[in-house]
Amino acid sequence: MNAEELERPVLAVDVVLFAVYEKKLRVLLRTRQKEPFRDAPALPGVAVRVDETLETAARRAIEKKTQWKGKDLFLEQLAAFDGLYRDPRGRTISLAFMGIVRTMPEEKQGIIWKDCREVTENSLPFDHGLIVRTAVQRLGGKLRYTNIAKEFLPDTFRIEELQNIYEIIMQCSLNRSNFRNKLLKIGMIEQVTVLTEAVGKKGGRPPHLYRFAQDRIEMTERDFL
What we know:
alpha+beta; 7-stranded mixed β-sheet; two-stranded antiparallel sheet; 4 helices; 24% helix
């Protein structure tokens, strides 16, 4: 058999879609409707068509598998997964994407928002557990040198809301004053206004609202945490 007669692999995309909800980092899973692994929760994914880009296929996977058409979605390529026997139907290479949403698609029949801490490398069909763990590791790393946390938050936020994102994903506790001062010092966030209406009857200092200084994902020269 020559090279031209070999089976041609299928190119697919799988999407790891993250959201922070009830103080947990969650990943969207969908119950599979067909074999293999019928009724098992898995990442949304599709085979790539000849007339679409990888990102278009990733967005189609989310819309097709969840019936969600949200525009408030951050996507970036994660990694290629090319295990020889990752798909029992035949040779398939997956280009995985990592996504973040601020507004979660509702959890309805077949849609599950699973705590990422409960996902192990072998807990999902195909190699989806490995894909999720790789995405969690990538997200934690990017928190340390980019402003990717902005994708979880509204345009303006209180510093404790931002701190919660870091603590939930990095699984650690941070000193609020040090955390705020570091981000202000490197110019990642800036103060917008004072939230006077949040002051209670007992008085006290009104909380500040902040925003990220840059709209797009920016990198620092080194880890800042």
